[in-house]
Amino acid sequence: MRQVAIVAFGQSDHRPDSAETSEVEMLMPVLHQVLDTVGLRAGEIDFTCSGSSDYLAGRAFSFTMALDGVGAWPPISESHVEMDGAWALYEAWTRLLTGEADTALVYAYGKSSPGDLREVLTRQLDPYYMAPLWPDSVSLAALQAQALIDAADTGADERALAGVAARSRTAAETNPHAQLTGSPPPEALLDEPYLVRPLRRHDCPPIGDGAAAVVLAAGDTARRLCPRPAWIRGMDHRTEAHSLGVRDLTRSPSTRLAAERAGAFQAPVDLAELHAPFTSQELILRRELRLADAVRVNPSGGALAANPMMAAGLIRLGEAAAAIHRGAAGRALAHATSGPCLQQNLVAVLEGDVL
Amino acid sequence: MTPAPSPEVLQAPLVVEFPFTRSLGPVQSAFLTGLRNRTVLGVRTTDGRVLVPPVEYDPVTADELADLVEVAPTGTVTTWAWNPAPRRGQPLRTPFAWVLVRLDGADTALLHALDAPGPDAVRTGMRVRIRWAGERVGAITDIACFEPYDGAGAGEAVPHSGEFADPVSGIVAPARLDYTYAPGRAQSRYLKALAGRTTYGERCPSCRKVYVPPRGACPTCGVATDEQVEVGPRGTVTTFCIVNIKARNLDIEVPYVYAHIALDGADLALHGRIGGIPYDQVRMGLRVEPVWSADGRYPDHYRPTGEPDADYDTYKELL
Question: Which SUPFAM superfamilies does UniProt cross-reference here (chain B) (predicted)?
């Protein structure tokens, strides 16, 4: 089978508010950055795929406005997913595997600042039984966190959650794009008031605006464009029932299955970028992915340092690939999630050529 | 040709509001009609589990489900989260706990609110019962919330026909989201100039085309457009259509003409309404000029200038 690699990755600086730029204005520098990295012009890319959401923008077909940024005239081969760009990357990967394209540009963006994100996200819930109650995203994550704390076999408590927050935001000090960096020690975090018990503010991701892009390439094209391509050895995504009440919220069987199908358990990884917007979700993902203590988890700071909607999952793939590009990782796992309480999960395994 | 000034960013409130009308299948109809009658129904799966709230297809086996059962209005909290600051649309106005409740007789849990004096009064495993809304219409909000309950668990789910008088066949789910719309640099510059009765396009540094209205990017080259160019005010109708449908909340008599207009100096046609001429006399090549709105912030429509029509060759590239 053809081998496909991530050969370039770029992201914006993630900010709480970017009212001075439109979506396409925010996105364009990132697109130029990744194209410059591989020395291609937009018109030389075989396939373009993006991820974004009309509910964030507050208007229909909002992704068409961003297409100006990739030069969609004369016509290009293009597609869009109304979810995180990690799923756009999956679509592009399959397109390259078929041999119909040798290169792909994948981008994703989201501006949360125009709306009230916690309310906007209620519109992705089941419209008959859940959405009429307007349960916000933090409250749903809090239900999952409490279930985890109550479960006998997890060892999770509020101190453990604070430890995830402190580690992530301390790690983000070396990430120039992060929205939140630095943290008091976990014990100090426990003095803060609850946002929605059992979650405190540090257990939740920052709300912000941002964009990301990657370039994919197949086989020899990848080798030509990148000194050390991040080969996608496997990728899979799985979903679970929409209703929270039929799921065991302390587990993530879709993550486990996606990881198995992606080949994550065939050999140990040395780095993992997990899309865990809430601290409790990292603990759940670590267990499902069977990550050893030695694995570096989210050296970028992860979604707790910057969580631009629709881009944060793609950024996990990009950060993992970038670590391989610079020789800082040999075999990396990247994970993206979408929907309430880890409803949908994507896992990719990336490898560099042996140095 | 002037370099673009650093714009003061425009912002305006934007409300997106829909009354989504949704039809119900047989299972959801029975469940929501049941709530109107203070009866909670679930559905039994082919392997014997009872799902509450009920669904038409088994989330595990994908079997079609229709075997309705009645469960108790009492149950057990399986997880909870204390919400100290209720938000718009949520079930209670005072601080409350979100709960997943497994009703007695059910194997799955229902999401709702629990009215409790404080977080210390809530725990996983606590017993609760439904507090019904005073006025019930056949919606999940017919359950006002849950409240603490001292009683023991009730028995098994019992078969139910799912038949009620005057069943609910649909719901109207109003959704309102409030945004602060910010159009970004290019469109802010355009809108501000428009309020001064000047129309600016932006030129692509690569292909040299002038785009109006500018969005900050050249759709051909994928690069930023940042050189402002005054265009118009006059222009040429490149193509048009005759609108015969009266739009809600729009005070324009039908039929009227909606046209693509190539402003002089622009390389892209914008669209606008044509007025000041009978609808059946509008034609390709008609020369038009803007008529500004009463508050003077944007062209309300375009009217004929009286000039001779433009030659087809002068605008054929802009169709």
Answer: Nucleic acid-binding proteins
